[in-house]
Specification:
Elements lengths: L2 E10 L4 H23 L5 H8 L6 H15 L16 E3 L5 E4 L7 E8 L2 E9 L4 H9 L3 E10 L2 E11 L10 E7 L5 E6 L5 E6 L1 H23 L3 H31 L4 E6 L1 H7 L5 H24 L4 E4 L16 E4 L2 E3 L9 E3 H14 L6 H11 L4 H4 L25
Parallel strand pairs: 8-11, 11-12
Antiparallel strand pairs: 1-5, 1-7, 2-6, 3-4, 4-5, 6-7, 8-9, 9-10, 13-14, 14-15
Helix pairs in contact: 1-2, 1-3, 2-3, 4-8, 5-6, 6-8
C-alpha cells in the first residue's frame, strides 16, 4: 500500500510562566546553535555536531540540526546567508516529542516538548478536528511520527508533526453499497446495509460493548471521587488510567470490527453521521456526561475513518437529523417507545415495531444513496474557503470539553500533566 504523509498542527494551550520561559530558552538556544553552525559552514553532520554540542539543547534538537545545517550549507540548498533567523522553527527528530491522550481530563490531548537533557515540558494541546483520524492513528501506533517543528505565531505556540501511514487506494467504482453506521450510547455502533433487493441485511449491534463502557465510566467516577475525598490523588490517577485504557481498547476493537464487517460487502462505502451536527444536538445536562459522549463519538468516528482508509474503503458523512425517528421503510416520523425500540405511526407501513439502532443505521445509509453526503475533502475545501483550517479555530471542536474551559462545573481532575 502507498504511504501518505501529512503535517498535523497542535496548538499548545496556555503554558504557565515557567513553561513559557522554557520554550523560549529552547527557541533561543536552537537559533544560536543554528546560526553558529551555519557561520562555521558545516557541510557534514560531524562538523555540525562539533558546534552544536556546546548548546543547552536536547539530543533530539541537536540531531535535527546535524541533518539540517549540512543541507543549508551543502549542495541541497547552497544558502549564502541565513535569512529570517528568528523565523526558523525549532526542529526535533521523531524520537523527541511525544503525544498522549487523556480523555478523562479537561484537556484531551497532551504533548511533550524536549527542553534539554534533564527537562521536558508536558503541555495540553488543541488539535484540528479534521485531523483527528490522523491523531488517533498516530497515538495508537498505526501511523509513524516523523520530524516535528516548534514555533510561535501571534503569541501562541504550535507544534507541527509529520505523520506517515499506509493507505490503500480509494475507489467507488461500479455501484457502491452504502453501509450505515449509527453510533450511540445504548449501542456503541450499529452496522447495517441493504442487499441488491433493498432488504436490510445482516445487521450487527455492539450493545454489550456499550454496556461495558457505561459500567467502566460509572466505576471511574465513583471510585475516583472517593479516592479524591481521601486525598489519594496518585492512586486515583493510576486507577483512572487503567479504566480508561480498557475503554480505549474497547473502542479500538469495535472500530476494527466495523471496518471488517464493511469489507464483507461488495463495493462498500461506510456512511457516518456528521459530527458537526451531532455536537449541535447534544443536550446532556451534566457537563461530564456531555464531554464524554462527545469524546466517544469523535473517537469512534475517527478510528473507523482511518482504519477504513487503510483498507481502501471510502467514508462519507450525512446530516443525522431525524435518522433515529424516521421510518427506514416509509419515511414517516415514528416514536422511540424505548431506547432500543422504534415504532412507525404509519398504519399502512409494514414496519410496525423495529429495532431502533438498526432503523437509524439504515436511514444513514439511505441518505448517502439519495445523494446527501460529503467526503472529508469536500468539508476541508469548504472550511478553507470560509475560515482558517488550523487548530486555532478548530481545537474547541475536538470534543465539547474544550468549549467549556471556563465553565464553573469543570471537573476537579486537572490532568497528569497539568501545570
Amino acid at each position: 500500500m502507498p504511504a501518505v504523509t501529512k503535517t498535523l498542527e497542535l496548538r499548545l494551550i496556555n503554558p504557565n510562566h515557567h513553561k513559557e520561559r522554557k520554550l523560549r530558552e529552547t527557541q533561543a538556544a536552537y537559533q544560536q546553535a543554528l546560526h553558529a553552525a551555519f557561520e562555521a559552514d558545516c557541510t557534514t553532520q560531524s562538523a555540525t555536531n562539533d558546534v552544536v554540542v556546546e548548546y543547552d539543547l536536547s539530543a533530539y534538537a541537536k540531531n535535527a540540526l546535524k541533518r539540517y545545517v549540512p543541507q543549508l550549507c551543502g549542495e541541497t540548498y547552497s544558502a549564502t546567508e541565513l535569512h529570517n533567523l528568528d523565523d526558523h522553527p525549532v526542529k526535533f527528530t521523531n524520537e523527541g516529542p511525544q503525544i498522549d491522550h487523556k480523555p478523562q481530563n479537561h484537556y484531551e490531548w497532551y504533548v511533550k516538548i524536549p527542553h534539554h537533557r534533564d527537562y521536558n515540558c508536558w503541555l495540553p494541546a488543541g488539535i484540528n478536528p479534521e485531523q483527528r483520524p490522523w491523531q488517533e492513528a498516530l497515538y495508537s501506533g498505526d501511523a509513524t511520527l516523523g520530524e516535528s517543528r516548534l514555533f510561535e505565531r501571534d503569541g501562541t505556540w504550535y507544534l507541527h508533526v509529520t505523520a506517515t501511514r499506509e493507505v490503500a487506494s480509494r475507489s467507488e467504482s461500479g455501484d457502491p453499497t452504502p453501509v450505515g453506521v449509527d453510533v450511540g450510547d445504548a449501542a456503541l455502533a450499529t452496522v447495517c446495509h441493504r442487499d441488491e433487493h433493498g432488504t436490510p441485511t445482516e445487521p450487527v449491534i455492539y450493545s454489550d460493548e456499550a454496556s461495558t463502557v457505561r459500567h467502566l465510566r460509572k466505576t471511574y467516577f465513583t471510585a475516583t471521587r472517593r479516592l479524591q475525598r481521601r486525598e489519594s490523588t496518585r492512586i486515583s490517577e493510576e486507577y483512572g488510567e487503567s479504566l480508561w485504557e480498557r475503554i480505549d481498547h474497547i473502542l479500538h476493537c469495535v472500530s476494527r470490527r466495523v471496518v471488517e464487517r464493511a469489507r464483507e460487502v461488495e463495493s462498500p462505502v461506510l456512511v457516518l453521521e456528521d459530527l458537526q451536527y451531532i455536537r449541535e444536538n447534544l443536550e446532556y445536562g451534566v457537563y461530564m456526561n456531555r464531554r464524554l459522549h462527545g469524546w466517544a463519538f469523535a473517537k469512534l468516528h475517527s478510528q473507523i475513518r482511518y482504519k477504513a482508509e487503510q483498507v481502501g474503503i471510502p467514508v462519507r458523512t450525512v446530516n443525522p437529523r431525524n435518522t433515529s425517528i424516521e421510518c427506514h421503510a416509509c419515511g414517516e416520523k415514528g416514536i422511540r417507545s424505548t431506547q432500543a425500540t422504534f415504532r412507525c405511526r404509519n398504519d399502512a407501513c409494514w414496519v410496525g415495531e423495529y429495532q431502533a439502532d438498526i432503523n437509524g443505521a439504515l436511514n444513514i445509509a439511505d441518505r448517502y444513496r439519495s445523494g446527501e453526503s460529503q467526503s472529508r475533502t469536500d468539508r476541508e475545501s469548504r472550511q478553507k474557503a470560509t475560515g482558517n483550517d488550523s487548530a486555532t479555530d478548530g481545537a474547541s471542536l475536538t470534543g465539547p470539553q474544550d468549549s467549556h474551559s471556563e465553565d464553573k462545573t469543570c471537573p476537579e481532575t486537572s490532568g497528569t500533566y497539568a501545570s
